[in-house]
Amino acid sequence: MEGGNSPNLQLQQLPLATAAVSVQPHTDSFSYKENLIGALLAIFGHLVSSIALNLQKYSHIRLAGSKDPRAYFKTKTWWCGFLLLLLGELGVFSSYAFAPLSLIVPLSAVSVVASAIIGIIFIKEKWKPKHFLRRHVLSFVGCGLAVVGTYLLVTFGPNSHEKMTAENITRHLVSWPFLLYMLVEIIVFCLLLYFYKEKNANYIVVILLLVALLGSMTVVTVKAVAGMTLVSIQGKLQLDSPIFYIMLVCMAATAIYQATFLAQASQLYDSSQIASVGYILSTTAAISAGATFYLDFMGEDVLHVCMFALGCLIAFLGVFLITRNRKKPVPFEPYISMDAMPGMQNMHDKGIAVQPDLKASFSYGALENNDNMPEIYTPATLPIVQEQHGSTGGSAPPYRVLEHSKKE
């Protein structure tokens, strides 16, 4: 009897063993070390990328404000920024191989904080302490909130780790939750693209939603490519699998189209609006894709999920406050010096010529635009031909100014 019942006992104990295995990765101390390594790589990458973009912006401004005939790509400053940008992107790319997708994506708030700090440090106007604090109080509060949100994200982020082998990625790719998610995303993307192209719905939310949907697929494929590369380096070759090259092609295609829509958005809207709205939408879409494809929050308790969501909300609020404080650039408009036209009513009581506030606007780099370049443009004046009394013949000038004597 005991020998006949022994197989039944083994079958009854099997589900308990599998349940214990599924919980074990969350209690392993090494998984937390992998989270920390991935978070540090992402923070380092975003910091270096922000510094690189500001170096490139400084190179453009310096050339625009001088009479140097060289192109921007022939300067050492621009190339230094370009190499740092490659280093930063490599750090962010490597972080996806260690930590879950839902943890790495929200850490892009670090680049917004770094850009705001660089903009405050290199500001050109001199402010009194009270005016300086009043001017940048929202930036300081936003940076503090972004730091608090980042700490909560790293502390309570998902701790699910899975080897990015070709077999595991293929299994996730054909799972019904991800297929349903992809179906909904494709329908929404097609609707947004129809309204954007056919109905001319050039709203910032529409364009950045297109960017966010493409970006969610970009980060999913980036994690797959980075994870399979790491597994190959560790000794188990994955680069000979077709799924690796499928993910690589999808990563490149979605990144290119994402950059195209971002370029169109930068032509229509201010970079501060793109930074805040784009960060919120892209982070939300990427976390949803990571939770559906890689099952990042599988096995996490409710407390960790709620604290992670709170960290995301605090980071969203911090980025919004930082970008809210940015001064909007004033576009350059040619003008006519009114005081050069006698007899015309002046627009100012004191007779000062009309002068626009010339600010150079760039769509990347620091969030502070204080680039005063008064020597780039010169006033555009129209020729004035004074008509003298008693003159005969000749064609009429485009602008005729009559001079009257005091008696008249």
TrEMBL record:
Keywords: Membrane, Transmembrane, Transmembrane helix. It is a multi-pass membrane protein. Its main location: membrane. It is found in: Membrane. GO terms for cellular component: membrane. InterPro entries: Mg_trans_NIPA (IPR008521). One of its GO terms (molecular function) is magnesium ion transmembrane transporter activity. It holds the Pfam family Mg_trans_NIPA. Residues 387-408 are annotated as: Disordered. It comes from the Eukaryota. The chain crosses the membrane at residues 36-56, 77-97, 103-123, 135-154, 174-196, 203-222, 242-262, 274-295, 301-322. Belongs to the NIPA family. This is NPAL3 protein. It comes from Pitta sordida (Hooded pitta). The gene is Nipal3.
